[in-house]
Amino acid sequence: MRFLGELTKALLPVFPQGQLIIQATQVANTMMGAIIGLMVGHFFKFTPIQAGAIALATVFAGGAPVFNPDVKGVVFSSTGDIITMGVTAAVAAAFILWIGDKAKSLFDYRHSNGYISRYWWNWKTGSTIHC
Q1: How many CB atoms lie within 10 A of CB 83?
Q2: 86: burial class by Cβ within 10 Å (0-12, 13-18, 19+)?
Q3: pLDDT tens across 89-127, in order?
Q4: Region class of 14: left (phi > 0), else alpha (psi between -120 and 50), else beta
């Protein structure tokens, strides 16, 4: 990706539309931590919330987002540290495997009626369907 960005920068005087390619590669590089976290979650067949938790932990541990008081928000400054991202994703996956189903009840119940989210209520027939 870096090669594509540098090549496009060299061609900017002749190809000014290449600025879009440069910005796209910068966004892709910035989101590297999220991709690493999601792929680790996918590899271990985690639920979407578990994979998302790994992705968020990986992004913030890598150092890409920087809290900037001038803009009163978060600015993604760079790719971040890839080694730290890998270690964080591994530790987060190990932690989720260690916890297992102990915290699963926090996410399984829909509303307060006690129906487990794997079941869906069919309002037309009045029966429960297992999804």
Answers
A1: 9
A2: middle
A3: 999 999 999 887 666 555 444 444 444 444 455 555 555
A4: alpha
Q: Per-residue pLDDT for 13 more than 90?
A: no
Q: Which amino acid is at 36?
A: I
Coil, strand or helix at 66: strand
**Amino acid sitting at position 2:** R
Can you say whether the dihedral through the CA atoms of 114, 116, 121, 127 is positive or negative?
negative
Spatial distance between the Cα atoms of 93 and 36, rounded to a whole number of angstroms: 12
Q: State the Cα–Cα distance between residues 61 and 51, nearest whole angstrom.
A: 15
Q: Enter the tokens of residue 51.
A: 């994979």
Q: Are 32 and 53 in contact (CB under 8 A)?
A: no
Going 101 to 102 to 103 to 106, the CA torsion angle's sign is positive
Provide the token pair at 81: 């540290």
Q: Model-level pTM?
A: 0.67
